[in-house]
Amino acid sequence: MDTIRSVTVQSPGTIANLVCGFDVLGLALHQPFDCLTLKLIDRPEVEIINHDDYGLPTDPVKNVSGVVLLSIMERLHNGVGFQLISEKKIKPGSGIGSSAASAAGAAVAANMLLGNIFNKEELVQFAMNGEKLASGVKHADNIAPCIYGGITLVRSIHPLDIISIPAPSLFVTVVHPQIEVKTADARQILKKEILLKNAIKQWGNVAGLVAGFFKNDLDLISRSLEDVVIEPLRSILIPGFDEVKVQSKTAGALGGGISGSGPSIFMLSASEGIAKEVAQLMSDVYTRLGIDFHTYVTTINQKGIIQTEQ
Amino acid sequence: MDTIRSVTVQSPGTIANLVCGFDVLGLALHQPFDCLTLKLIDRPEVEIINHDDYGLPTDPVKNVSGVVLLSIMERLHNGVGFQLISEKKIKPGSGIGSSAASAAGAAVAANMLLGNIFNKEELVQFAMNGEKLASGVKHADNIAPCIYGGITLVRSIHPLDIISIPAPSLFVTVVHPQIEVKTADARQILKKEILLKNAIKQWGNVAGLVAGFFKNDLDLISRSLEDVVIEPLRSILIPGFDEVKVQSKTAGALGGGISGSGPSIFMLSASEGIAKEVAQLMSDVYTRLGIDFHTYVTTINQKGIIQTEQ
């Protein structure tokens, strides 16, 4: 605790609800990422300074990073506190894990300052307090890949069971159409019950997708990237979704779907060329629809959160 | 076609509906297995001789192996036929793939006689005609592991998509309580709709199980061997099920469940010692219940159907 007084980390965007792997499979991106600079201070307080234009709360009990840091202080109970300078680049509400980046970034940075006293699972536990504040639910689908990197399976939350899945070197194209999909709406549109036959199809695809990742079998990954349960309902909330999906696959993308609960859409591709072509046609779709948008062409981030400066 | 006129194969029992992997995951056993001796004959007929006491039909259109051989002859259309001598050791209705062993064994043996002109996927297609006769449904959950060996994922039937999953060196204990579970009852007891939250739990477990097989992570396999959808309903049809399961896990088994649609129950164990202990306690349960039973202590069969004699 004496050696490092300040740390800066990059906390990446993440894609949860990986097509058929709704609620269980997620992956980390290289772009976009938030920058968090955390300092140890000698009073048991959390001070938050936002270096961005999102107008997020600076009251720690209302701030995603803040509640995570408070939960760590509560565990430590040793009189120290934190000053956080947050520079968010992942737009809140985009569906690519903005709150998870804030929550997990704070937890990981704090742990670095504290001499790595917590393991990754404990960090996920702390960070879930941020997700609880952001969405009302303790979930780890974005936090797990953010902290572990690559592709993660959250097999269970109670007890927490996170499994790293080998991530192939794939390119990821993300389009964020600047519309609002309220998490409440995205939840409400789901049905409490689903057809057993669709559930079977889904877990066959999940099994295929996981096997495809382990075998690095891009054809199998592509065949398994099919969601017969969630996407047919939620994609209704995202204008242009079907067009983006059909055109991306025609252009050679392996497949993809809604990122998190939307509105971002992602596509996986084997080559940068295809990933860029996919970005172009996504742009064309939203330009034609008259909806502002942002695209990213990036890769799967095998490391998750990394330190950039001390 | 001229070199080999007769072939004998061992066609193994299989476990379908591998706990959370209902309808998609199955594995092949070393014990029990059927013996099928197939001969090429010079007339387009199928002649069936049963060397066992099960009284199965010898009319080829009513016989599981028969319809498979007829479907192959229909494809070949070259005037040849088959004589089959079948010695079944897998009791029909046991839930460990008796019909699949007949169907797949006939397809594989025929292919050997024909100079291996069909690939495994085509053999599965032929063999599914036997399952159609036996159960009314073309399914490959038992046929796939019977033909491919080890553990298989049937991701999809239309189009057929079978994926081999690495099988750890596990011991398998099977108990076949000699009660009848009618396939119709086993089907009828399932609900057409299931809770989304249970479906998510199930596909989290399926993903964990597949990852566990790839990583050879016995703890993960054990944690993932949980079925929250089918077992709670179907286990009601099998007296002693809960007791067998609880006692097996207490004895150190990794987990297990209903084999196929029952009535057999299987348990996976890391050591032969535990697998034998599990067999003993299964025996104790059914002895106490006054139900005749048969137990097997065996291993996962990595090869599937093998040739024993020419």
From TrEMBL, chains A, B:
Q: Which InterPro entries does the UniProt record give?
A: GHMP_kinase_C_dom (IPR013750), GHMP_kinase_C_sf (IPR036554), GHMP_kinase_N_dom (IPR006204), Homoserine_kinase (IPR000870), Ribosomal_Su5_D2-typ_SF (IPR020568), Ribsml_uS5_D2-typ_fold_subgr (IPR014721)
Q: What is its EC number?
A: 2.7.1.39
* Pathway noted in the entry: Amino-acid biosynthesis; L-threonine biosynthesis; L-threonine from L-aspartate: step 4/5
Q: GO molecular function, one example?
A: homoserine kinase activity
UniProt cross-references to PANTHER family, sorted A to Z: HOMOSERINE KINASE (PTHR20861:SF1), HOMOSERINE/4-DIPHOSPHOCYTIDYL-2-C-METHYL-D-ERYTHRITOL KINASE (PTHR20861)
A biological process term (GO) from this entry: threonine biosynthetic process
The lineage's top-level taxon is Bacteria
Entry's HAMAP family? Homoser_kinase
| Reactions this protein catalyses | L-homoserine + ATP = O-phospho-L-homoserine + ADP + H(+)
Q: What is its main location?
A: cytoplasm
Concerning NCBIfam families, the annotation shows: PRK01212.1-4 (NF002288), thrB (TIGR00191)
The protein depicted here goes by the name Homoserine kinase
GO cellular component terms, semicolon-separated: cytoplasm
Keywords for the protein's UniProt record, in alphabetical order: Amino-acid biosynthesis, ATP-binding, Cytoplasm, Kinase, Nucleotide-binding, Threonine biosynthesis, Transferase
Q: What does this protein do?
A: Catalyzes the ATP-dependent phosphorylation of L-homoserine to L-homoserine phosphate.
Quote the subcellular location field of this record.
Cytoplasm
Q: Which residues belong to any copy of the GHMP kinase N-terminal domain? A: 72-150
Annotated ranges, domain GHMP kinase C-terminal: 211-284
**The family this protein is said to belong to:** Belongs to the GHMP kinase family. Homoserine kinase subfamily.
